[in-house]
Design brief:
The chain has 323 residues and is mainly alpha-helical. Helices cover 54% and strands 2% of the residues. It contains twelve helices and two strands, in the order αααααααββααααα.
Length: 323
């Protein structure tokens, strides 16, 4: 599956992205089949989609100009998005903007690490460019100074350098800055100065830009989201949080059933919904039922039912409801 057209031409790019789309379609079909047919398959399918599906596409497109890769990346995101919610059995009406943004956050921040491929096109391209910028300056002295001078009007630059300027401007428009050396010798989060790239090779810049973009998304989410969403992210975050999402355990005794995984995912992201007027049926030590009305977000069932509030009471009635 290798395009026969010359590298970089429009024919080559169309052929290349066509190959990626066919492979992605086969991969997603296998993911959905795994989730539907195997006990514990949802856990395995979600792990493969998160750790293999998105990263492999980012790797395959990071050397492609973002303007050329964007149509393919948008189609890929739509297909991945559909498969993700399908295997988790989340209805379209339950998918909010806040939930989508939370999916992109790191697991220790209360998310699932599912950043869209389109959002990683610019970090991927800049990561490649900054990895070779030092050698490029050696072979073509003055290139970085030319880039810095043309930041506001890159029309005179070659296409690949115009693409680099566009990526920097797109990320900076979102408030993204990465930790870079300052002229005085220190380090600070700052806009990219191309003249800094003449001194040495910068490694892992794709990850730095992606992390900085994710940080901006998280700040935006925490600033604008309802209080319940902010509290949920805090509760679901922290060191080791979401470890059960990291991968299927080798020990069958700790492997999650499909139903349990879906319920835990809903619980983690606060998309539990109960019947209107449902009451708490916890039986106390004295033989009395609680009988308090269960709130929409099930705060009562998750701790308020008992004194102290820090003991999480998982009512089997809610689990049965979601099954």
């Amino acid at each position: 599956d290798t395009p026969s057209a010359p590298i970089g031409t429009a024919v080559f790019m169309d052929s290349y992205f066509g190959i990626l789309e066919r492979k992605l379609a086969a991969f997603l079909q296998n993911i959905e089949t795994l989730a539907d047919t195997a006990e514990g398959g949802v856990q395995c399918a979600a792990t493969l989609l998160r750790s293999r599906g998105v990263p492999s596409l980012v790797h395959a497109t990071r050397g492609c100009p973002p303007t050329a890769a964007r149509p393919f990346a948008e189609r890929a995101d739509a297909r991945i998005d559909s498969t993700w919610w399908t295997i988790l059995r989340i209805e379209a009406a339950e998918i909010t903007r806040e939930l989508r943004r939370a999916m992109a956050l790191k697991m220790r921040e209360g998310g699932s690490g599912m950043m869209p491929v389109t959002s990683l096109l610019e970090p991927g391209w800049l990561g490649c460019f900054m990895g070779i910028a030092h050698e490029l300056e050696k072979s073509h002295p003055g290139t970085m100074a030319q880039l810095e001078a043309a930041r506001d009007d890159p029309t005179t630059l070659p296409p690949s350098l115009r693409e680099t300027i566009a990526c920097v401007r797109a990320l900076e428009a979102q408030g993204v800055k990465v930790d870079l050396p300052t002229p005085g010798g220190g380090r600070a989060r700052q806009p990219l100065d191309f003249n800094l790239l003449t001194s040495r090779r910068y490694a892992r810049m794709q990850k730095r830009y992606a992390d900085a973009l994710r940080d901006e998304w998280r700040d935006d989410l925490l600033r604008d989201a309802p209080k319940a969403t902010r509290v949920q992210l805090d509760n679901a975050g922290g060191p080791g949080a979401g470890g059960w999402l990291m991968g299927p355990p080798r020990n069958p005794a700790s492997r999650m059933s499909n139903t349990d995984f879906r319920v835990c995912f809903r619980l983690r992201h606060n998309i539990l919904r109960g019947d209107e007027g449902a009451v708490c049926r916890r039986l106390s030590a004295t033989g009395h039922y609680c009988n308090n009305i269960l709130d929409d977000q099930h705060i009562h069932a998750l701790g308020a039912c008992r004194k102290g509030g820090d003991t999480h009471v998982r009512h089997w009635g809610i689990v049965d409801l979601l099954q």
